[in-house]
């Protein structure tokens, strides 16, 4: 206990108090007391090896810091201030507290929005909108006896009933709530999970694992046809780093730890995993494993499947894990690959051993302007060919370039403003780039200082062959920062009749340009056909390069004024866009996963036999469909 | 719903593809008022395709030679043949040189000048539907456009370019047969007017295929210019639509199938003539007189035809059709994700047939064509000797015109007497009667043999047959049903349908039927026959009405020459004990048999003598796997 700092201590106090209440409630039942002691033991055991447990970002009651019907922290949002200027509130981000003068015009020009026409969200959740929980009494009774905290509070349940798909957030903003879990349970350690899964099997209760809640595949949606009691298993309290092995450069973590905590805590010891998905503020390690996540800096560190050494997962059949930490094995098909991408259909990932790296000595952002998207893609392809991609390289199309511009904060000094003007003049007038065609690649280099500089030169030289001009560190850095704030921006759009979504795919190099063009055109045409009154925004960027192809991200948004059922139209267009992606040789998903949103294409994606293989694994591991979120299959 | 005139029941939600309103404008009118030179030198300001990178005619071959696909094939061929890659590349380059167009505005202007002169002399007017032209202008800016005219006369060639030049639309590049390239001067001119040249029998020449498909693909991908080609492949000698050729169609659609372009617009164009320049040549060709090789001197000799009047030429631009929309649900493009060369034959074939059908629907039916239908139903001897009473013919034509309009024909305001006057080479009106005109008997010593006499009549009849063929597509579906009713003597709908399908199957090389749409065709036939009051239709039955006898017997008689001809050939094949024969021998042998049968009065049609019918029978039998072609 002495090793705990105050932050962890207060958390413990809360848990202890909760336990006390439970004990008080069951004072006459000695069995319960035993089980609480057992739970406490599990805690104590951990504390011996606990590297650090301070600064837990995610409380059990997420609503204390996060929005219930939008993205991210409650204190952070875009709004139009009294002067009609866009402002980003809060203190958490570099952009926080800043004013973005160009955003209003961009919104109006791009979507035809009008600040007079608002579509505000329902401010608070009315409990009456939430169906009362269907509880499996026997299960609840036994759960109580384990002392593992749980709740059937309406807010707690609603929070775990959704991810961040457009339709999910749209419904919440209208105060509409569908099927939600009947109970939320917060295990504290692996053994707690084992116990919960045992009980769920015993009482035939449906379990849905919940990590960071950032799913964009309808993965967290409760199947409406589910008649059993649904229990959301929230791993957020299992967020400790259990050990760091500096000899082998590995670390062992509980799966509920969210990305930002993991990096911060490792950084304190001088290490990092380098795994930085765009959702890393909120998404959890277990979620990454369960969805085959991909990180921004995968070029140096690899995607999740390259980073994971060993996984522990609790299934209805018991615990699945490997017996050693060998770096590679030839022991039949890798069982990790049943776990990675299983999307919560087979069990709960509880602990993960992962590669770590010493923190990079030096980081440098950069950016390159290309006269058009074609040249940009050609450059990325060449970079991939020469295998010299920096930690991250992303290519935004013209629409996104303009969007990035709209988010430029107010310039404080005349000098910067003058410099910006000069740059623009140089690029458009002197170099003859068409501002309606040019596009930008953002770069991030990491490593030893000299090597980074060398590497930087190599990449810029290649870019120059494709007509690219270096456009400075600032542009690059802003590009990456936007990644974190763009999700907040969707909430602003939704205040003004604009709905949107991003979706991704991976595609061979020779099809990158075709898929980008065709999907964007398809979106525009479908919107027109479906009666959308305003020109939609259809934009894309290539976010990852591989030897044989790239990951492409699409952004799509439109002003829905005048539509009676905007979400339906939206879903139809999104569906058509996915059809177009598949018709153009794109994959069903690069890293978002399948969930329930893309399930209909799964069979075609993996063939009948492939589907049968996956099904037979499910049938063996979970014959009673305890993990009944019905994702994937 | 049933009454809706649509050949594509499955797609009835689609807007009608044909532009039916009659805003045809005579484009010669203005030419007659103003200077030809002024027209040739007009400011040409087309609005090109917005989507693609613009490239010049000179860039095209470079892009093609540099393309990954071609480089790959070159390497592959080099390995196979043992030649050096440079040699193969040289060869590819030579093929490309032979093929390439070299579109230059100057030559379009020159052509414009010549065409204005020639057209003004040949035609009373050239009527173009402006609405279609406007839609085309729009479509060309939005996506790559394929122009699909039918091919009925040498005059067709470049007429589209001429019109597009006149109306500020980007001038197309045109796929043409290689013989045209060989013509002195003319070959060079049309190459510079946008024609590119394709060999006829490419067979398995891998390099040629690769160069050609890459060339076509590049034109479409870059949006260099609209591409024009004949989906029927050839000029129809019989004025009847030909089975579409799929190779070029496939090549053209491939950029869409592979997602290299978002969409392609197909524009079927129907050219119809009151009178075709090469009418008598065609008839002779069909009777076995060999075709003249395309040559410049030949062209000059042919200039004597310029002295005659050929009436009106109609150019009907169909509404541009999005391949993306047409193919929805027809083809799964994901098959292209793994193997770049997967087949999409069924879809291409469907599309190609559809295009020909739309060309047919867009053709104007002249009264003369209807008269030809009727004239051909009279015994030939009567036509040549006694003649047909004029009033009887006119009355009947008026009746038929109404039937044609009922069947959805585009009304043509022409007058019958002038039609007959225009076709003085085929018929002559004398003392209230109409006679078939046969070629003047040459002065000769010995009397003409009966066989030679048959050929003389046949030439005249086949000329008329061509004009009848112009309207055949309108009647063919109801005619199949009428025949089914006549032959089976049943009213049971499913029995009729079965026989209808049988006939449709047998005659699939003769008439254009969209593959896989037999029930739609049957439905259409039923609807049309009911519309003209020829049948009653219930859930289970189709019964002929008393009032409909005239229509039914006309329709049966319309199909009769085909049935007779097919039967003669089937009989020949059955009687002939030999199981293997050469195609070269087959044609004259059948011709002999038919001549004999005509002389003996057993056979009443001269159409059996047409090599076109003969070839169609062979193709049909091969398709039905009754005959097989042996490679020698």
UniProtKB/TrEMBL annotation, chain A:
Gene3D superfamilies: 3.30.160.650, 3.30.300.330, 3.30.465.10, 3.30.70.3450, Uridine Diphospho-n-acetylenolpyruvylglucosamine Reductase, domain 2, Vanillyl-alcohol Oxidase, Chain A, domain 4. It is found in: Peroxisome membrane. FAD binds at residues 209-215, 291-294, 343-349. Its cofactor is FAD. The record marks 394 as: Important for enzyme activity. Its EC number is 2.5.1.26. GO terms for cellular component: peroxisomal membrane. Its main location: membrane. Residues 177-359 form the FAD-binding PCMH-type domain. It catalyses: 1-hexadecanoylglycerone 3-phosphate + a long-chain fatty acid = a 1-acylglycerone 3-phosphate + hexadecanoate; hexadecan-1-ol + 1-hexadecanoylglycerone 3-phosphate = 1-O-hexadecylglycerone 3-phosphate + hexadecanoate + H(+); a long chain fatty alcohol + a 1-acylglycerone 3-phosphate = a 1-O-alkylglycerone 3-phosphate + a long-chain fatty acid + H(+). InterPro entries: Alkyl-DHAP_Synthase, FAD-bd_oxidored_4_C, FAD-bd_PCMH, FAD-bd_PCMH-like_sf, FAD-bd_PCMH_sub1, FAD-bd_PCMH_sub2, FAD-linked_Oxase-like_C, Oxid_FAD_bind_N. SUPFAM superfamilies: FAD-binding/transporter-associated domain-like (SSF56176), FAD-linked oxidases, C-terminal domain (SSF55103). GO terms for molecular function: alkylglycerone-phosphate synthase activity; FAD binding. The active site is at residue 553. One of its GO terms (biological process) is ether lipid biosynthetic process. It comes from the Eukaryota. Pfam families: FAD-oxidase_C, FAD_binding_4. The keyword Phosphoprotein applies. Pathway: Lipid metabolism; Glycerolipid metabolism; ether lipid biosynthesis. Keywords: Acetylation, FAD, Flavoprotein, Lipid biosynthesis, Lipid metabolism, Membrane, Peroxisome, Phosphoprotein, Transferase, Transit peptide. Homodimer. Belongs to the FAD-binding oxidoreductase/transferase type 4 family. Catalyzes the exchange of the acyl chain in acyl-dihydroxyacetonephosphate (acyl-DHAP) for a long chain fatty alcohol, yielding the first ether linked intermediate, i.e. alkyl-dihydroxyacetonephosphate (alkyl-DHAP), in the pathway of ether lipid biosynthesis. This is Alkylglycerone-phosphate synthase. It comes from Cyclopterus lumpus. The gene is agps.
UniProtKB/TrEMBL annotation, chain B:
InterPro entries: GPAT/DHAPAT, GPAT/DHAPAT_C, GPAT/DHAPAT_LPLAT, Plipid/glycerol_acylTrfase. Pathway: Phospholipid metabolism. Its main location: membrane. GO terms for cellular component: mitochondrial membrane; peroxisomal membrane. GO terms for biological process: ether lipid biosynthetic process; fatty acid metabolic process; phospholipid biosynthetic process; triglyceride biosynthetic process. Keywords: Acyltransferase, Membrane, Transferase. Signal peptide: none annotated. One of its GO terms (molecular function) is glycerone-phosphate O-acyltransferase activity. It comes from the Eukaryota. It is found in: Membrane. The keyword Membrane applies. The keyword Acyltransferase applies. Residues 145-274 form the Phospholipid/glycerol acyltransferase domain. Belongs to the GPAT/DAPAT family. This is Glyceronephosphate O-acyltransferase 2. It comes from Cyclopterus lumpus (Lumpsucker). The lineage of its organism: Eukaryota, Metazoa, Chordata, Craniata, Vertebrata.
